[in-house]
Amino acid sequence: MDIELKIKMYSTTLDCNEPYELAKFYAELLHWEIVPIQGEEYAIIAPPATNQGAYPGITFQKNPDYKPPIWPEEAEAQQQMAHLDFVVNDLDKAVQHAIRCGATVAGKQFSDGWTVMFDPAGHPFCLCNMAHIFESPDFALR
């Protein structure tokens, strides 16, 4: 491998119909900030007091043909391609906070250790009850 080549994680990008609206949801959910950019095709959020790119962020990309995935999967239906996992120190409080932000709880759950939810655009995400990870000194994004 070329030791001069450097690659860093910049962002996870979610397709959606309304990038700024979905960015507002995740900014409120995570207590992050919307990064000022021009245009209506993209919106970006990042942890507070960081410059864009200082930490991996979440980018929201306008896709007029976006269709939310069906979860759990069904044959011949739009499938999820990825989902976000968020570690929390109190699952019940985190679920209630997500609902206040505009999320909904998935009708089918598979564990008591995490809750599957849907953002306002229909992307599934999980709130994972892992206080030991959240409180670890190695866990960077708080």
Description of the structure:
This protein is α/β, with parallel strands linked by helices and 142 residues long. It is 19% helix and 27% strand. It contains three helices and eight strands. The protein has helices at residues 19-30, 91-101, 131-134, and strands at residues 11-16, 33-35, 42-46, 57-62, 84-88, 104-105, 114-118, 124-129. Strands 1-4-3-2 form a four-stranded mixed sheet, covered by helices on one side. A four-stranded mixed sheet has the order 5-8-7-6. Strand 7 (114-118) and strand 8 form a beta hairpin. The model has no long low-confidence stretch (mean pLDDT 87).
Structural class: alpha/beta
Order of helices and strands: EHEEEEHEEEH
Count every beta strand, where a strand is a DSSP E run of 2 or more residues.
8
% residues in beta strands: 25-35%
Distance between the termini: 33 Å
Mean pLDDT, as a whole number?
A: 87
Query: Overall 3D geometry?
Result: globular
| Uncertain runs | none
Number of helices: 3
Question: Strands across the major sheet, in which order?
Answer: 1-4-3-2
Helix fraction by DSSP (H/I, runs of at least 4): 10-25%
Rg over CA atoms: 16 Å
Query: How would a crystallographer describe the biggest sheet?
Result: 4 strands, mixed
